[in-house]
Amino acid sequence: MQILLANKFFFEKGGAEKSLFETARLLQAHGHGTRFFAMQHARNLPCADARHFVSEVDYEDRSLRMRLKAGARMLYSLEAARKLAGLLDDARIDIAHLNNIYHQLSPSILRTLRRRGVPMVMSLRDYKVVCGSYQMLADDRPCEACRGGNHLQATLKRCVKDSLAASVLTTVEMTLHHHVLGLYGLVDVFISPSAFLKDKVREMGFAGEVVHLPNFVGGLEQVLPQYGSTAPRLVYSGRLGREKGLATLVRAVKGLPLHLEIIGEGPERRPLEALVRQEGLDNVAFAGYLSGDALQERVRAATAVVVPSQWYENNPRSVIEAFALGKPVIGARIGGIPELVRHGDTGLSFTPGDVQALRGCIDELLTHPARAAEMGRRGRALVETELSPGRHYAALMQVYERAIARHRPPSAGEDFKKGSEAR
């Protein structure tokens, strides 16, 4: 089978990209061909399909030219449709597996794939199909104001960067893609890594068929676990954003006899560093972005990994990667985290934002190191059984087969309400 994998970034930026590359390696190991579609970027990995990638757009660049380009790309990208059509001219594709395509690629590519008769599967890495700001978060609390497709709420609540202009653009984007063009209705099957996300998007009014298929850890035989630790150490690894609850974690470790290492980058790094100075903490360090062996080495040496999120997390890779390394996880009881962090079994859980509850979980693992090591063993066992590459591959093939069976070839002259494929 020849599979097209599409994602806006083609380097290991976050969990979505890790899953993309893990899936590609899994498919290749089983003899399938893979082609790729993404955005050009200086950090991209080498790829034979790079000539078909769309030009880079930077949503952090505040110049007028880039802001206009970024806004237009969000709504509909003629370039992405044209570049993808060129790739499809070069390759026979049996099925397309889409990941994060919003904004930098745009759902315009869904129409191109539909017109070429390519069945589509799409992995949901966040809540973008029901929430314009991805996170279902407002004022640092879960928000479901857009339930039922009421995307005007994004403007009324200024959900995007607290900016009226950005929020209005998002309202237009969501209305255009869902209610005018019906682009997401062209996807045959959606994949949700967590049962929580699957149920939540359905509650919010999303009509697409969604199948639950958790993430997995590839190459487990090369991932050596270490149960227990030689010193009391905690690790957080991921994006440094307000939604991640890191201020709660920093306050929770104040005065405790341990070392906390915060690994990652993001907009909250400076505020968190200021908080550490304000609280006079000498047991918190910021390591910046780490990946591969360097990241595994830090996690392997830890007593536990902490995931203190305050938003509806999906199926965090930081959790399953910690389990693979034999580490228990202390996780907030929110979103898909409790599906993995089973209290008293593979880790401990607490109410999001509750400093004292988190502090109690930390103290429990520090006080009972043998129990922490046993939780780490159970986490590793969960990854080896429920989240193994073999199990994931078998389930993924079933999803592909379902999408191919459900796919209805486009009828002659079908225009999906408006427009045509850009060639």
Report on this structure:
The chain is an alpha/beta fold and 423 residues long. The protein has two domains: 185 residues, Rossmann fold (3-Layer(aba) Sandwich); 166 residues, Rossmann fold (3-Layer(aba) Sandwich), CATH 3.40.50. It is built from 15 helices and 14 strands. It has a six-stranded parallel beta sheet with strand order 2-1-3-4-7-8, with helices on both faces. The protein is globular. The two termini are 26 Å apart. The C terminus is likely disordered.
Could you write a compact summary of the structure shown?
The protein contains 15 helices and 14 strands.
List descriptors.
423 residues, alpha/beta, Rossmann fold, 2 domains, six-stranded parallel sheet, 39% helix, disordered C terminus
